[in-house]
Amino acid sequence: MLTVGVAAVLLLLAIASVLAALAWSAWCWTLAVLLIAAAAVAVYDVTQRRHSVLRNYPVVGHLRYLLEKARPELQQYFIERNYDGRPYDRDTRTVIYERAKGIHGEQAFGTEREVNEVGYEWVLHSSAPKEPPKEQPRVHIGGPECRRPYEMALLNVSAMSFGALSANALRALNAGAARGGFAHDTGEGGLTKYHLENGGDQIWELGSGYFGARTKSGDFDPEMFRDKAAHDQVKCVSLKLSQGAKPGIGGVLPAAKVTKEIAQARGVPQGEKCVSPAAHRVFATPRELVQFVARMRELADGKPVGFKLCVGYRHELLAICKAMLAEQITPDFIVIDGSEGGTGAAPLEYEDHVGTPLTDGLIMMHNALVGTGLRDRIKLGASGKVATGTDIVKRLMQGADYTNAARAMMMAVGCIQAQKCHTNECPVGVATQDPRRARALDVADKTERVVRYQQATVAQAQQMIASLGLSGPQELHPAMLMRRIDHVRTDSYAQLYDWLAPKQLLEQPSEDWAPDWAAASADTFLRT
Questions:
Q1: Measured distance CA(151)–CA(156) in Å, rounded
Q2: Residue 133 DSSP symbol
Q3: Mean pLDDT, to the nearest integer, of 462-469?
Q4: How far is it, in rounded angstroms, from Cα 421 to Cα 431?
Q5: What element of type H or E holds 137?
Q6: CA 521 to chain CA mean position, Å
């Protein structure tokens, strides 16, 4: 890794070449000039705060920016790849970076999409559009049992733990949340000082490892949980059941990233791979799950409590709904994590082949709650490759009330998708616990980028909603989202999916839903 020492070495070589020119040959002046110029560039790179790559890789880091300017072939091949190497949507990546940097997002020459391609989607618009509101809309989080509700933004920072991300990355995200008025999910790695020092609203996520509220034997510690949940910045508590990129297995933090500080925050051994259990210890049935949700809410003094999951078997969702009805206990929110969501450490098979995509999982959860008469008591969040205003609008049309973004927020703080997250060698200081690498991420500069990205993206979503002739997100409907089925046929989402009527599952389940409804039990996740 090239560091500040590069500038010193180049400067010493420049001085040596000047002395050589004076003592032996005038030809050495050419070398001296080149070395002096390189040393000056190196000094500038390590002292500037805008580009993390240059702070860690002075001089040679400029090659990356030369490639970025070589549009479109070189940039698309070398720069614009997503986390697992497959082509990433160039427009999406450009939107994130430009918004974070405060650059206007207009583009010449119109759409680059193949509008006749099967699967192409678009949002309808009105001939009588409205002007979008100047203020961001808020989503009220808090059901009947909640005593301290929270007003959620349309776009928030999704779950990313200390350990997965560096302290500086968390500082920038949290400071951005504080300045921009949106929430920051801690991830399952625990509530740490880096989540709290800049004043941003926190959603404290508790996974199967119970990090931050964990006994020495790995069980849930209610008193430790009560103490941390009482913090003023903790606005909601979220129980993680599963993660989109690796549903069915626990979270993983590679041994190289389990520093002394991480070990203390999580209550695990230093230098050993940290693996969360696949399943929770505190519940084994849907009924016990909702009872634990109620217990968490009471320990949190009435703050909103919910859970996050990647959807699997449909009968399991219905079993949870039956448990809610039987116990008369409902979470205040549920976050659906799509299988397309990212992660720093997961088996390739899980990333590509396990779990329900966000569109299907979100619609399924929305229908389950509507069909059981519970939808008006529970807010739905959506996470999984949410990056643009279009993503927000589409997810709201599909049943969500608000959205969370992880990868896009990482890119806003400087992630270049180098795919080094699991190695502790992130070149820009975002996903590393190496202090030499993490110092490259300037908190003040990246805080500004996070705020600009979130505000510009929500503003674009509001502009799109206004273009549909609507007054706000609550008026969005699946009939407004279209998809091309083949080269001559298009359908709206209202036509493509079976949308249940309120309490339909309780009164007369549809032919499609009836088998899963009959197989669901509040007392087991198994099919009965």
A1: 12
A2: P
A3: 98
A4: 5
A5: none
A6: 32
- How far is Cα 510 from Cα 505, in angstroms, rounded to an integer? 8
- What is the Cα 370 distance to its own chain's centre? 26
* 3-class DSSP state of 108: coil
pLDDT of amino acid 116: 83
At a CB cut-off of 8 Å and minimum separation 6, what does 68 contact?
75, 79
Tokens read off for 362:
């979100």
pLDDT at 251: 80
What tokens were used for 167? 């302290």
Distance CA 75, CA 66 (A): 9
Q: What distance in Å separates the CA atoms of residue 319 and residue 316, rounded to the nearest whole number?
A: 5
CB-based contact 399:363 (threshold 8 Å): yes
Within 13 Å of residue 71, how many CA atoms lie on the same side as its CB? 4
What is the Rg, in whole angstroms, of the alpha carbon atoms belonging to the chain? 25
**Which pTM was predicted?**
0.86
Residue 87 has φ and ψ, to the nearest 5°, of -55, 135
Q: Specify the pLDDT at position 83.
A: 33
Pair 224, 211: CB distance under 8 Å: no
Task: Determine whether 86 is exposed, middle or buried from the number of CB atoms within 10 Å of its CB (0-12, 13-18, 19+).
Answer: exposed
Q: Are 165 and 188 in contact (CB under 8 A)?
A: no
Q: Could you give the C-alpha distances from 126 to 457, 490, 500, in angstroms and in order?
A: 21, 18, 27
How many residues does this entry show for the chain? Answer: 528
Phi-psi region of 372 (alpha: psi -120 to 50; beta: other; left: phi over 0): alpha
Burial of 136 (0-12, 13-18, 19+ CB in 10 A): middle
Nearest of 155, 201, 202, 93 to residue 395 by alpha carbon: 155
Q: Which domains does the chain have, with CATH numbers?
A: 5-79 (no CATH), 139-518 (3.20.20.70)
Place of tokens 């008193």: 223
3 pLDDT tier (thresholds 50, 70, 90):
low
Q: What's the pLDDT band for 15 if we cut at 50, 70, 90?
A: confident
What's 46-88 look like in SS3? HHCCCCHHHHHCCCCCHHHHHHHHCCCHHHHHHHCECCCCCEC
Nearest residue to 279 (alpha-carbon basis) of 241, 334, 321: 241
Residue 385's H or E segment, with its range, is none
Residue 371 φ/ψ, nearest 5 degrees: -65, -20
